[in-house]
Design brief:
With about 210 residues, this protein is mainly beta. It is built from one helix and eleven strands; from the N terminus they run E-E-E-E-E-E-H-E-E-E-E-E. The strands form three sheets. It has a four-stranded antiparallel sheet, with no helix packed on it. It has a four-stranded antiparallel sheet with strand order 5-6-7-8. It is globular, with a radius of gyration of 20 Å. The chain starts with about 35 loop residues before the first strand and ends with a strand.
Length: about 210
């Protein structure tokens, strides 16, 4: 059961009619930050890494970055949350995995990142999607390496997943939209909807 105040202009207990979604050229408007927490724990030592998204904008806007914390072993104390200040100016949707290629519990985080300057909210819906690419960072158990581009094509890449086997061999897969306008324009039968027919599955291997 859903409760709460009705939307302005709507009638309680009734659907309020068909709404037309804004097209890809519509402004993004206000952004909301989603922490998307990720945690990996080594089952042998209990060492652990935690990563989340944090809003580092000092004003009313949203400008996301990554922050992390570590634990030295089972029952250990978590370190204070630290922000990774360099790299993309706006990031989201991290995916964290242990690489299993060393004794210090190294890991990789893959995420969507924008490198263009300016407020990410001051873009159209399509510009927001196509101005980001997939990035990743390697954690050697002590420090994080620099940001590295996994894709760099001004097209929308999303829904990434990363995993490694016990030999340290890994794969990351994601959805790649090959359209320069992934949100369909207004005026058509599918106005404002995502162009799913342009989706492909891409993958990269780590070994």
């Amino acid at each position: 059961i859903m409760t709460g105040a009705p939307l302005p202009g709507s009638v309680p207990g009734q659907f309020d009619g068909i709404k037309t979604l804004p097209g890809g050229n519509a402004p993004v408007g206000s952004l909301r930050s989603n922490s998307r927490p990720q945690i990996v724990i080594d089952p042998t030592t209990g060492k652990a890494i935690f990563v989340q998204v944090v809003d580092t904008d000092a004003g009313p806007g949203v400008r996301n970055n990554l922050a992390f914390s570590t634990r030295g072993g089972t029952g250990g104390v978590w370190s204070a949350l630290q922000t990774l200040a360099d790299g993309s100016v706006h990031v989201y949707n991290p995916s964290l995995a242990l690489t299993r290629d060393g004794a210090n519990v190294p890991a990789v985080v893959v995420y969507q990142g924008m490198t263009a300057l300016g407020d990410p909210a001051n873009r159209t819906r399509n510009q927001l999607l196509t101005s980001q690419d997939l990035r990743y960072r390697y954690f050697n158990g002590t420090t994080w390496g620099s940001e590295i581009s996994l894709t760099s094509d001004s097209l929308y890449d999303s829904d990434h997943a990363v995993s490694f086997n016990n030999a340290g061999q890994g794969v990351v897969a994601w959805t790649h939209n090959k359209s320069g306008t992934p949100i369909l324009p207004t005026g058509g039968p599918n106005a404002g909807q995502f162009d799913r027919n342009s989706n492909e599955i891409h993958a990269a291997v780590w070994n």
